[in-house]
Request: fold
Amino acid sequence: MDLLTRPAELACRACGEQITDAGYLPAIEREAGYEPQADEAVCDDCGFNEVGMTGCAPELDDVVEPDGADVLLYVRWTDDGPTVVSAKE
Ligand SMILES: [Zn+2]
Reply:
């Protein structure tokens, strides 16, 4: 599945930096694809060091409130915007 909409930009909610390479993006799972929760995105570094247990990829519950999203997407930034690399429920 892919994103229903591609945010034009994503800022990390932990450090405020633009995500330009890779990061974590919570999303709501719809029949046609993932609906990104762009306000809750975190960058790769913060995902590992601030949000998840130190040195570990964050879990969905680390990033959003319970019921805030269905899946935690790991996205990589491309010319088209964020592209889903993997999804963790
Ligand atoms: Zn960050």
About this structure: The chain has one domain: 22-88. Residues 22-88 form one domain.
